[in-house]
Amino acid sequence: MTNALTVNVPEGLPFIEFEREFDFPVADVFRAHKEPELVAQWLGPRGLRMEIDHYDFRTGGSYRYTHIAPDGTEYRFSGIFHTVRENDFAIQTFEFDAYPDVVSIEFLTFQDLGGGRTRLTAHSVYPSMEARDGMAQSGMESGLSEGYERLEELLAGAGTPQAQSGKVTA
Amino acid sequence: MTNALTVNVPEGLPFIEFEREFDFPVADVFRAHKEPELVAQWLGPRGLRMEIDHYDFRTGGSYRYTHIAPDGTEYRFSGIFHTVRENDFAIQTFEFDAYPDVVSIEFLTFQDLGGGRTRLTAHSVYPSMEARDGMAQSGMESGLSEGYERLEELLAGAGTPQAQSGKVTA
């Protein structure tokens, strides 16, 4: 699959990088990252329900959401948006409540490839090698991969009634 | 000097660490980091005047300030506070306008040593080795060192009339 997620976990540096292409315009991919009603429909692995406390995708905004597993287990995430530039770039912090104060910072680039296609590139920076390794081994890659599949389904207007009601229009 | 600034620039990891002790209570050291009228009196090297656009030292807050050199050159800094815990801990992002989008994240610990003394410990995380090296070579250490001397003067109620008017009271 030409659009498959690629993940890089560099040895000896506390970074994770990934890249994912989409056959959708950058404005649509960006909007799906910006609007909480859309974010709730794709972010995270299949099978987890997402409840958003707040999600204010703008420079100086903040977010907090919970992923709820079928057995009721809750996973809470929060952070702040240092920078958000429309259809271009975002920098956010990321904290998982199970590991308080272990906060990473992620640099997300939305690149217009032309021809109605987009490349998403992320550079995540962890406060220690242990934190980076913990994240890399946490099932992060499959969660990301599934999330981006769900994002594609949302952008295509396919999938569940929820996704259809949240269809991204140009 | 038992309270001298110690700086560690670890090889091969994009971090800078530093530590500084003060013969002042943690609440006073914390307040000097929290209140913009106080921050303006110590943060940065001697000889630079600080103008604060905003400085909201709380979880989810943000800051922007300018250091102005005698020749009029301006250096602008901004970021957001991911976490602030009273007399305890803060996490903030840091961006210098001359290097847009090169954003670091800093973990600042305020430790009550007892006996009216405090240890400040910082762990700064850079998005690349180049960014870390650039900061380490920028005169950061002397700027930090001078700033903490100015902080001590402020806490002691000594120094300029400005410092006296901003004296920290228990």
What would you say about this model in short?
2 copies of one chain form a homodimer. By secondary structure, chain A is α+β, with helices and mostly antiparallel strands.
Task: Write a structural description.
The structure is a homodimer of 170-residue chains. Chain A is of the alpha+beta class. Chain A has one domain: START domain (Alpha-D-Glucose-1,6-Bisphosphate, Chain A, domain 4), CATH 3.30.530. Chain A is 25% helix and 38% strand. Chain A contains 5 helices and 8 strands, in the order ββααββββββααα. The first copy, chain A, has an 8-stranded antiparallel β-sheet, with helices on one face. In chain A, strand 5 (74-85) and strand 6 form a beta hairpin. In chain A, 29% of the residues are buried. Residues 159-170 of chain A have low confidence and may be disordered. Chain A binds chain B through residues 12-14, 60, 62, 79-83, 89, 91, 93, 95, 101, 103-105, 107, 123, 125-127, 129, and chain B through 12-14, 60, 62, 79-83, 89, 91, 93, 95, 101, 103-105, 107, 123, 125-127, 129.
Structural topology:
2 copies of one chain form a homodimer.
Chain A: E1 6-8, E2 15-22, H1 26-34, H2 36-39, E3 49-55, E4 62-68, E5 74-85, E6 89-96, E7 104-114, E8 117-125, H3 129-136, H4 140-156, H5 161-165
Antiparallel strand pairs in A: 1-2, 2-8, 3-4, 4-5, 5-6, 6-7, 7-8
